[in-house]
Specification:
The complex is a heterodimer of chains A (about 280) and B (about 325).
Chain A lengths: L2 H35 L20 H8 L9 H32 L5 H13 L6 H10 L6 H26 L2 H9 L4 H12 L1 H17 L2 H6 L8 H10 L5 H36 L1
Helix pairs in contact in A: 1-12, 2-12, 3-6, 3-9, 4-6, 6-9, 7-8, 9-12, 11-12
Chain B lengths: L3 H12 L1 H28 L20 H7 L10 H30 L7 H8 L1 H4 L2 H11 L6 H8 L24 H27 L3 H9 L4 H29 L2 H8 L10 H9 L5 H26 L7
Helix pairs in contact in B: 3-14, 4-9, 4-11, 7-9, 7-12, 9-11, 9-12, 11-14, 13-14
Classes of the chains: A mainly alpha (about 280), B mainly alpha (about 325).
């Protein structure tokens, strides 16, 4: 074979290989879209078709009308709770995380290594390993029904990532910029607010998004702690839907799409930053 | 004799007062929601704390009994077997990360081929599973593995393959050699591999692009085949960039609560239970808080050693701290 033909053949094989994995990647999502559009609101699907005959948006309407079967609570209410929890978690983790990361990045203080290492270890700690004491403490303190308790808990779970991510980024901002400002009579605080923070927008965006995604999608703690339907979040309502065997699959599909879409949109807008944020450590090493 | 190192330490603390002020808010949050529960847990683990003590938190001290009951599988919970769960957890982690890395690198290499068309287009599709919230993906896959109406069996039927597979409830092993791995293991494996490929692919792509093209040109002049180039240039050079990602992958998969809990629920007969799902069930619905605390501490120690071990092997954090 000529080199040209040989390369073409190799590319063909590679195209087929890549397309196979794209089919695998998209298959579940196409399936869920097809179920959501099914007009019969069937309890179970029986065929594989992308756009079912007579596709409608009825199951979306049903989900909006009565998102939680167990009690009368509006979709708007659940959405507001989710936005509050996700937004609150995002804001707190960025502010508190940025402040701590600045100290870890710019000061050589006693306890610095220990601090970073313990954040790393806590980052590895799964929620369910400290669920028992959390449950007991929150129940005994009667904090378990409030959304603020949830926001506080989520913030502590996202902080270790926030600090690692932001500290890594702050390290790449040249020290000279700050030193020049300090010589010009700027104090540490305004150097932090006016120089470091504006230069770190990508890393701040990733941290913000990470906090938002965590708050938006976490269901396990929420399900364990919240008992009043009026304080439920979208994520835990969707989880509950699956537990109920008589839920039509179309409604489940429509609900999943509604919960995923905001995350998908933000994710693709910030894709470039997420990737560089998560792999920064790797590229440096 | 005066210990000058202490004086120096105090002096350094004093000089860095501002640093501690910056850390204070984070320290408060971590102290309340993480450190305090862990300390409380250290006490609970040695008591018979159960649902009745939620109103009146004065349980009895029981010494090491909770730990002994866990290690001897004497917990009053169906299908509880600590050692089976632990070994399944290890197998689960390695099989998953193996496939993540192999498929991720292969896709990255394919997309990094010179003059390969539609790269960006392909890449944005391959990344989609990473962008969907993981717990929703897990719920979708759980329905896809439904034995009667799930998409997987419908697809197998279309392809003319055996299609009445009870993916989630059949406790027997499809591959006889791996007798401890039931059908639901493969269901969870497929789900989690689907979830994790994109991350490894993206990390590997970044690493591949940092390899200078001149190295391949030099190798070609020396007559190295493509295989040799891959084995002697590509692999050794992306190893270092992959190390932190692999470490993250190991820890994430070891704790992959969403996939196991939502797809197989640890079943059938607890055969696909991993440590974190078992820890969750001890709290909710079982309410065995004392045992759950002891279990959480054991999980914590195991994770700590896994982390320190992988960190030592991969040297993932060396450059960052």
């Amino acid at each position: 074979m000529k080199p040209k033909a040989k390369e073409k053949f190799k590319h063909l094989i590679l195209h087929l290989y890549v397309i196979f994995w794209i089919a695998v990647a998209l298959f579940p999502l196409l399936w869920i879209i097809s179920m959501a559009l099914d007009p019969r609101n069937i309890s179970k699907p029986t065929t594989l078709t992308l756009i079912p005959p007579g596709a409608t948006l009825d199951s979306f309407k049903q989900v909006f009308a009565r998102p939680y079967q167990g009690a009368d609570v509006s979709f708007a209410r659940l959405l507001w709770n989710s936005l509050l929890v996700a937004g609150g978690t995002a804001m707190f983790s960025v502010f508190i995380g940025a402040s701590a990361s600045y100290a870890f990045s710019r000061f050589k203080f006693p306890g610095r290594q220990t601090g970073m290492m313990s954040f790393l270890i806590i980052f590895m700690l799964p929620t369910s390993a400290i669920l028992a004491p959390l449950f007991v403490i929150l129940t005994v303190l009667h904090l378990s029904t409030s959304l603020w308790g949830l926001i506080f808990a989520y913030t502590s779970f996202t902080l270790p990532f926030a600090i690692w991510n932001l500290k890594g980024y702050f390290d790449t901002v040249p020290k000279e910029l700050e030193e020049a400002a300090l010589v010009d009579g700027c104090d540490r605080n305004s150097a932090f607010f006016r120089i470091i923070l504006p230069l770190s927008t990508p890393a701040l965006a990733v941290t913000l998004l990470f906090g938002f995604m965590n708050g938006w999608t976490e269901w396990m703690l929420a399900w364990t702690f919240l008992s009043q339907p009026k304080s439920f979040t979208l994520a835990m309502t969707l989880y509950n839907m699956v537990g109920q065997w008589n839920t039509p699959w179309s409604s489940f599909a429509a609900f999943s799409i509604l919960v995923s879409v905001p995350i998908l949109i933000i994710w693709f807008l910030l894709q470039k930053y997420i990737v560089s944020g998560l792999t920064l450590g790797g590229v440096k090493g | 004799m005066v210990d000058y190192s202490d004086v120096a330490l105090w002096e350094r603390v004093r000089r860095n007062k501002l640093a501690y002020r910056y850390i204070l808010p984070a320290a408060i949050v971590m102290a309340v929601v993480t450190a305090y529960p862990i300390i409380y847990q250290l006490w609970m683990a040695f008591t018979n704390f159960s649902i009745i003590h939620l109103r009146d938190p004065h349980p009895d001290f029981v010494g090491l009994r909770n730990f002994i009951r866990i290690l001897k599988n004497q917990v009053t919970l169906e299908n509880f077997n600590f050692w089976r769960t632990l070994s399944f957890n290890v197998i689960w982690t390695f099989v998953n990360v193996f496939f993540h890395v192999i498929i991720g690198i292969s896709l990255a290499v394919a997309l990094n081929t010179p003059r390969f068309a539609l790269k960006r287009f392909y890449r944005s599709f391959l990344i989609v599973p990473w962008a969907v919230p993981a717990y929703i993906s897990a719920l979708i896959w759980r329905n896809m593995f439904d034995s009667q109406f799930g998409a997987i069996n419908l697809l197998l039927a279309k392809l003319g393959l055996p299609h009445n597979i009870a993916w989630l409830s059949n406790p027997s092993a499809p591959i006889k050699f791996f007798s401890i791995l039931p059908y639901s293991f493969y269901a969870c494996l497929i789900t989690n591999v689907w979830l994790g490929i994109a991350f490894m692919m993206v990390v590997a792509s970044g690493a591949l692009q940092s390899i200078p093209k001149e190295m391949y040109e030099a190798a070609k002049i020396d007559g190295a085949s493509e295989r040799q180039q891959f084995l002697h240039i590509t692999l050794p050079l992306i190893r270092f960039a992959m190390a932190p990602a692999i470490m993250l992958g190991i820890v994430w998969t070891f704790n992959q609560f969403n996939v196991i809990y939502l797809v197989s629920g640890g079943g059938p007969l607890g055969r696909t239970e991993i440590l974190v799902t078992q820890a969750y069930k001890l709290v909710n619905p079982s309410g065995l808080f004392g045992i759950a605390s002891a279990f959480g501490l054991i999980v914590f120690l195991i994770l700590l050693s896994v982390t320190l071990l992988t960190n030592r092997v991969t040297r993932a954090t060396e450059s960052v701290i």
